[in-house]
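This entry is listed below:
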Amino acid sequence: METKISRIKKRDGTVVLFDQAKITSAILKAAKSVGGKDRKVAQMLSDKVVQELEKITNTPSVEQIQDIVEKVLIEEGHASTAKAYILYRQERA
């Protein structure tokens, strides 16, 4: 998916290139931890996350991206994946 987002702000304040594949991978890992395995679904959810991110006018932060991932997972009916993602996110924070 082509996106207008080119950079994100990491927790330490550094700005790095945006890589949607990292979002897809994180969603897929969370899904796998609860029995899911469909990369196409993870990609579709990741695309929805990017659509939401494009509404942000400034450089999005890692936290903003993670908030949107959680929101999209819940809105799209993937509550168990959202729970696994939230737990993973807490470990990384």
Q: What stands out?
A: The CA atoms of residues 39 and 75 lie 18 Å apart. The chain has a mean pLDDT of 94.
